[in-house]
Automatic annotation (TrEMBL):
PANTHER family in alphabetical order: LYSINE--TRNA LIGASE, CHLOROPLASTIC_MITOCHONDRIAL, LYSYL-TRNA SYNTHETASE
Organism: Candidatus Amesbacteria bacterium GW2011_GWC2_45_19
Pfam families reported in the protein's UniProt record: tRNA-synt_2, tRNA_anti-codon
Keyword Protein biosynthesis applies: yes
Similarity field: Belongs to the class-II aminoacyl-tRNA synthetase family.
Gene transcribed to yield this protein: lysS
Location of the Aminoacyl-transfer RNA synthetases class-II family profile domain: 164-481
GO biological process terms on file: lysyl-tRNA aminoacylation
Names of required cofactors: Mg(2+)
Keyword Metal-binding appears in the UniProt entry: yes
Superkingdom as given in the UniProt entry: Bacteria
Annotated protein name in UniProt: Lysine--tRNA ligase
Amino acid sequence: MSNSRLEEIHRIRLDKLAKLRDRGIDPYPPKSSFSLISIAAVRDAQGKTLAVAGRIWRWREHGNVIFADLRDSSGQIQLLFQKRNLEKNFDLLKLFDVGDFLAVQGEVIKTSAGEITVDVAKFELLSKSLRPLPDDWHGLKNVEERYRKRYLDLLLNPDTRHRFNVRTVVFKETRHYLDKLGFKEVETPVFHPLYGGANARPFTTHMQALDTDFYLRIAFELYLKRLVAGGYDKVYEIGRDFRNEGIDHSHNPEFTMIEWYEAYADYHRVMDVTEGLFKHLAAKIFDKTQIQVGDKTVEIGHAWPRIAMSDLLAQKLDLDVEKLDAQALTEFCRTHKLELVWGETKGQLIFEIFDKLISKDLIEPTWVIDYPADVSPLSKPHRTKSGWTERFEGYIGGREICDGWSELTDPQVQRQRFEIDTKIARKDKSEAQQVDEDFLEAMEYGMPPMGGIGIGMDRLVMFFTNTWSLKEVILFPTLRPENK
């Protein structure tokens, strides 16, 4: 619709608004005077006189009779306005438009065409719409406009509403599942004096009250582990993280994470709990454990195999990484045209080869376990394999869905890892872990053995809706501001 046409419609609706006020009608009352029930409930109440409210969706005038469609969050119903029933109030209807919010009271009938309808005896305007809704047949075709005007996207696209309904179930049932296992939900600070718990570039801000620079958190990990040291044996947090990095189909600068930590547990226990969570969510959302991932149907109800990264490299690429040094692995990467920043350690090269050449082919649910220490600064050293850690990632449909490990609890080793991480070559040094003295002090008071995991809740919703664009599962994704 052209801007001139939109401006004309806006002007006409403003004129209707003024006429309503001239007639002593409040176009934005605080509530309806009727006792309202949902449209879904009204549809099952033929013969009764009831009241409903919602948004006018269609409007069809036929002389002394007007038909309209009314929608609320539970459904849609037809309205019938007859001049002989409404007398002098019938002429008010010419001041109403598609998009207005309306409350009506009347008998629920079935028309000769078989349509459940409210034969309106009384009505009242609840909110006057000043802009026309996009045509629900053509909808919003511009993808970025759908993200900027999510409220219209939700109104016009049932698939969008379904995705966010699933998101609600994912959050609710994740909490329910962990709560039943005895975990306690907590909140930790968003402002961190040091950033840590992940390798990512932070956002910085200045707090005027303390005249101090802070970082928006990139992870909850170091604070949740402090709570385990303080006596919380099972703890989790669901909240926002912020990473000052790229924006694409799988990354947004602010996103929702869950992390949980369990005392006296190792990475095998964490995998057990996580696998149970995925099966629980599948049962709640789909009432089955078959999941559609891309164009593949994947069964997640069985026990997921656990395979060491070094074994996968040997099986898939005939690569014995235990025997090869960094130079040989670098040459392998060059031969297979893998992008490097040069200066990578042996562990980084091992992970790069796995990530680029193997991970995408892990279709069936798979736990990849035992990661190089160089890429796992917070993981406990492997109990039997030098140079490796007790870390895992879960893969389904060729996509990494979660990341966890047996947590490092030795403060001296943790200090060494922090210091090494700040020196490892990276595209951006600001991604490295910081040496967090306060966290190290908490470790020195003693931390029990523990396992932990972090899962992107947005990516979890992507997984359970088979929607592989992060912006489709975040209500208001980060966008460049429009030039006005």
